[in-house]
Specification:
Layout: H1 2-9, E1 22-26, H2 30-36, H3 41-62, E2 66-73, H4 81-104, E3 108-112, H5 120-133, E4 140-147, H6 149-165, H7 176-181, E5 193-196, E6 215-218, H8 228-239
Parallel strand pairs: 1-2, 1-5, 2-4, 3-4, 5-6
Helix pairs in contact: 1-8, 2-3, 3-4, 4-5
The structure holds 3-methylbut-3-enyl trihydrogen diphosphate (2 copies) and magnesium ion (MG).
One 3-methylbut-3-enyl trihydrogen diphosphate (IPE) binds next to helix 2.
Length: 253
């Protein structure tokens, strides 16, 4: 199935199949995947990392330029501490095991989210990974970690308010563009497509500002089961969408 569609896309992603410049992924369903197999939730997270590795490869293969993955939300702190620390360790292990390959594949890594509440060694690790991959020119892998869309907007508003109070900016000069530049994602284009696995149909505080005109595609499989056929089915669904941005679209009707 995957290779059939792949054949249809190549070369140059061929007739009719559009590839988003920026793909956002809400990687959901790790716990349910594990539970269905009588395993611990944490095993679902381990398997989820493999799906992430695979998805990075699909993005490179099919020409996605930015991939943003939701890996830990600011609300995920409400989970049992053992699960939270397991996910934190998984980020460290992912960097240790995959940085080499990501470098080889010219991937630039960005980690977006609040640094508050993160241990200094983890902050150093994040800074280090970003610095090491900064000049890479291939896929930009944006990891939303300790990320919440509302917190991001509030932080940006606070920064603009501080600038206004200090006289650095005039409040009347605040625009959508200047607020956008105060977000973590200032140098990243808005996502064209956001997908969520596991059948849930909500954003759960992911890229709230940036998703204003993103197409949304929800797929039933849990994140550890997301494979190349799933990826291509999502691209097919995206290709059928007409993006109108409030206008009348190509047909004018
Ligand atoms: C997504 O899977 C990963 C994180 C939120 C860290 P879940 O852990 O939410 O899995 P479910 O939704 O409980 O199955
Ligand atoms: C969203 O999934 C966060 C991540 C995928 C990291 P959740 O599983 O935390 O979202 P809810 O609780 O189902 O809305
Ligand atoms: Mg979930």
């Amino acid at each position: 199935m995957a290779s059939e569609i792949a054949a249809k896309i190549s070369p140059g992603h061929g007739p009719g199949l559009r590839v988003p410049v920026h793909l956002g992924v809400i990687m959901d369903g790790n716990g349910r995947w594990a539970k269905a197999r009588g395993k611990r939730r944490t095993e679902g997270h381990v398997q989820g990392v493999q799906s992430l590795r695979n998805t990075v490869e699909y993005c490179i293969r099919y020409g996605v330029q930015y991939l943003t993955v939701f890996s830990f939300s600011s609300e995920n702190w409400t989970r049992p501490p053992e699960e939270v620390s397991f996910i934190f360790n998984l980020l460290r292990r992912f960097v240790a095991s995959d940085l080499h390959r990501l470098m080889r594949n010219n991937v630039k890594i960005r980690i977006v989210g609040s640094r508050a509440g993160l241990e200094p060694p983890l902050i150093r690790l994040i800074d280090d990974v970003e610095a090491k991959t900064r000049t890479n020119t291939g896929l930009v892998l944006v990891v939303a970690f300790n990320y919440g869309g509302r917190a991001e907007i509030a932080e940006a508003a606070r920064r603009l308010a501080e600038d206004a109070v200090a006289g650095r900016i005039d409040p009347s000069s605040i625009t959508e563009a200047s607020l956008g530049r105060a977000l973590y994602t200032s140098d990243i284009p808005d996502p064209d497509l956001i997908i969520r696995t596991s059948g849930e149909q909500r954003l759960s505080n992911f890229l709230l500002w940036q998703s204003a005109y993103a197409e949304l595609v929800f797929v039933p499989e849990n994140w550890p089961d997301f494979d190349e056929s799933s990826f291509l089915r999502v691209l097919e669904a995206y290709s059928l969408r007409e993006r109108r941005y409030g206008g009348l679209g190509a047909t004018g009707s």
